[in-house]
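Hmm, what's this shape?
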Amino acid sequence: CWQIAYGIESGSQRILDVKREVRLPRLRETLQMTRAAGIRTKGYVMPGHPTEGLDSVTEGGISSPAQRARPSIRPRSSAAEPPTMTADAPGGDRDEIDWRTIALPDGWPDRLNFASPRDLATFLRRLFGRRRRVEIPSGLPGADRLPDYLQHEFHHLPNGNYSKRIVSGYSRWFDLVMLRRSQRARTTIAHRLARCRATLDVGCGAGELTGLLLAQGVPEVWGLDPSPFLLRVAAHRHPQARLVQAVAEATGFPAGRFDGAGVCFVFHELPTQVGDRALAELHRILTPGAVLVLAEPSPLHFRPNQLRRFLRTHGVLGLYFWLLACVVYEPFAAAWHRRDVRAWLDAHGFDLCEDEVGMPIRLMTAIRRA
């Protein structure tokens, strides 16, 4: 169970005394106990008493300030059914889950005992053997909505991003493997988005860019990722961030919701058609004039045409990242590097302003056209 919907009826004790025998302190206690158990809550109220107004919905403090909820009228489906109100986030945003407290099931790597030679051998075979489809743990939130392309073991991670143990280690070691270059790229992205009002970190992972955007003082920062395991790490690191589970091509946000977005190491992990849909979705949820900053692996170290010249130019650093690109599993990276990025952005309503092809990261800044 990951969500319980409660029939609260009203946030006013005066109205509750008329409608039903229930006390507001008991309602608050029930909601708090449910959230403490890691279960998301949703409250339904039904205004109908002649003296009742919309203010009665939040009169008793049932809505948590952290949820920033506001009442919204849902249209009734028939004349006999009264209008129902739910606590929705501002601006028609999608519902939020408290990823810090939600209970997540174990993936198969979480059940291994590394002190057991048999379990250790199993892990090493999966780490260095052929890539397989990930095994989604039973009961994982949003498991039924995960697209097929996400069920690859990217980066040679056993079971991908669907294990507490693997995600915890990956979130600590990724920047070290990248020799801190990825952190520098995220810092640049955060600086370029610092003047935005509301930003979205697409593919936020463990929340590195999300945290940098918050540190820049961006008033509203959202992070989006399909992996609940990564979202939980991000929530623990940055409790003030707003995090949602979704994919880049279907964010669930209303049109024109953000004036800035950062996308770090995402598009090279998407099939070509999915990448097109993701960019179209970004155009939809960004305002005209919004800033879009992308960071992707550099094409320089991905199968360079002249390896000797490449190594003379970039030395040991180039050799390291060239070898890394050779051994890390990235099924869609080759197609990404064949893209004409300027033409691709232009076709989806973006003007490319900056394109810095460095080693090992390529940074691109674009502006959404009206």
